[in-house]
Amino acid sequence: MSIVIENLCKKFGATPVLQNFSWTVDRPMVLMGRSGCGKTTLLRILLGLETADSGTVTGVKTPAAVFQEDRLCPQLTATVNLTLTGHGLTPQEAERELRGLGFTDAELALPTARLSGGQKRRAALLRALLCKDAATLLLDEPFTGMDAELVADAVAATKRLAGARPTILVTHDRTAADLLGWPVKEV
Amino acid sequence: MQAKSDLPPSCRGGCEHRPLQTPLWQKAAAILVWILIWQFAAMGLGHGGLFLATPLQTLGALAQLAPTAAFWQRIVFSALRIVAGFLLAAAGGLLLGAVGARWHWVRVFIDPAMQLIRAMPVASFVILALLWVRSANLSVIVSFTHVLPVVYAGVLGGIADTDPKLLEMAKVYRLPLSARLRYIWLPGVFPSFCESCIAAMGMCWKSGVSAEVIGLPDHSVGDALYRAKITLSTPDVFAWTLVIVLLSAVLSAVAAWSLRTVKARLCGEVRT
Fold first, then answer.
1. If you write DSSP's letter for every residue of B32-65 in order, what string do you get?
2. Hey, which of A164-173, B18-27, B259-268 has the most confident mean pLDDT?
3. Which residues of A lie inside 8 Å of B (Cβ-Cβ)?
């Protein structure tokens, strides 16, 4: 199954954000571009959170997403946040992957409201990657707030867990894009 | 990695009042000063406490009332009815608030009734209610109607405060309704719901006992207050007033504790 985007147009007021944007995503791919060029708007349209002015989108089935913000339930631990949206993900699997991205026992016991920005970002990334029924992954700047070493670990986890699923990863971090080694579309 | 403490409003919770911490001795000293002012004012007015009973006269009256069965019977009678009215109103406010937030036309329909109830004096309402119900059940109706608009407004406010970004996340991840309610809606609504319930608990005692003073149901606190007034037994009036204030404070504390516990359990809150 591929994500097929054809002639997508979107304006906010008089400002055009997407103009006749077409793209076919049949495997994990990277979308790069300057700020304000409509990358996040495109992901929101694919997620059904915005309506396009014209054009068509097909092939987005049961998506999982990393949003611009972390959007974790603040009163729950990272593990519970992951299992909540995991559609069959076990706490053991969630904890194993969280530990793999540097979570300690103490951090696993904290509500996410008390985690640092980088920890929340890693939890948000794993939430999308570990969602068991997700056929499409839409990841908006998933490595924000991570230092170079953590980005390398997060990139490795992303490559391993995304598999061959149609994935759009939005980033403006050239190093992360290079580490991923996925085809890059510039807008 | 450093752990930050940036709990959002929904996590801090409205039932967890953490204002500026005043040392206990300062609170005790303030109360003591007010008791002294009360004592001097009563001594100044004279007439053996007819116009203003002294603190000692009040405590003496309370000491005489407390061992009697009638005293406790009146407290149970009034407390059961006022708390019943409160619980019904809390449930009704929760339901109407949720329905009003979901369907705008329901809110448009309900709002004038709520505004009318808020603006209506207790006395007018009691006189009307006496035409419809027995005086024994008056305090249920009056406390219900005075609490309902407060809780309704609190629930509407809480629903408006619920994080729309988390709701989007829930939609994208196809969370079932039960999980959305438990982990997103309830933590969003609870702070405002708690605050309104705690404020309403004080209000329902005031309105409930006022209703009893007008309706005079037998074996009620309001009836005792009225009898003390017509017999010019000012220390008894003060003693019963003190009892009402204490009951209101205790039940507000119980309500706050219960709501906090329910919130922690229902919303899966992690305590650290």
1. HHHHHHHHHHHHHH-GGGTSS--HHHHHHHHHHH
2. A164-173
3. 47-49, 62-65, 67, 69, 71, 73-77, 80, 84-85, 87, 102, 104, 106-107, 109-111, 113-119, 127, 131, 133
Mutate to test the interface with B, among A62, A68, A75, A131 (most CBs of B within 10 A): A75
Please judge whether B4 and A109 are an interchain contact, meaning their C-beta atoms are less than 8 angstroms apart.
no
Superfamily of domain B58-266: MetI-like (1.10.3720.10)
Query: Rounded distance, CA B122 to CA B143, Å?
Result: 10
Region B203-213 average pLDDT = 89
ipTM value, please give it.
0.94
Contact A116 B270 (CB under 8 A): no
Nearest to B195 by CA among B162, B164, B150: B150
Q: Is the pLDDT of residue A27 over 70?
A: yes
Cβ–Cβ < 8 Å for A92, B250: no
Cα angle value B81/B86/B87 (rounded, 5°):
100
Concatenating the DSSP letter of every residue in B218-239 gives TT-HHHHHHHHHHTT-HHHHHH
User: Domain map of chain B by residue range?
Assistant: 58-266
pTM of the model: 0.79
Architecture of domain A28-53+60-186: 3-Layer(aba) Sandwich (3.40)
B3–chain A nearest CA distance, Å: 5
